[in-house]
Amino acid sequence: MRHPGGHPVCLGHATFLRLSQLQWACRQSLRGYWSLCAMLHSPLAASCAAWLRALEARVGGRFILEAGAEFGSLNCWWGKRRPRPAPHEGVDFCDFQDFSGTKRQIKPGCPVPAVAEGQVVAVFEDFMAQTIIMTHQEHLDGRQLATLLAHVLPAPGLAPGHLCGPDMEVAAVAASRTTAPPHVHLSVLAAPPGFPWASLNGWPELLQLHEQKELHFLEPPVPVEPLHAHPDLGGEQQ
pTM value? Predict the structure, then answer.
């Protein structure tokens, strides 16, 4: 990189990483915009909204998003809000406002339903607990849509090949084994026909396939408000 006067400028590793992330986000923005527009007209969009309401019924409140919990965010939303190694691949659900107006956090053991009718195609470890991927009948631009639930404990006996109906409880929120509070991560994936889910070897390969454009993470169409829409909730939580 050069200064406007023509002199080279040296960038620290952290600055270079940040610029690389921003460049990646810019490259994805137009494609992401069109993908989201198409997703909003997909039956899976209604399923995602219904899933969110079902999860909210289980916690007893309405979810709100901390800065950094949203799709594409460059920083974590917990602790020191450190930079993420890559833009966030989904949406994290942790904080919610209960019916008395108190800000709370989802608890370990809270049941997590399936997003839509589909088939479990992968279950593997993640940095907090386990991840479940389910494929669905909906397609987008010739690619099959799938949903991913991370940082959960699968229901007893749940394994690839199992068929699940909408609102069927497929997992429970896991206790955290990191500095991140317990939460549910939701991603939406678009995969080519005949994608070999059975051979998928966890998150590192998943992210590599995304970088290689063999799989695409799409913004989950969930109607949830950011925390700044609730200025009265910036204080204590229970």
Answer: 0.81
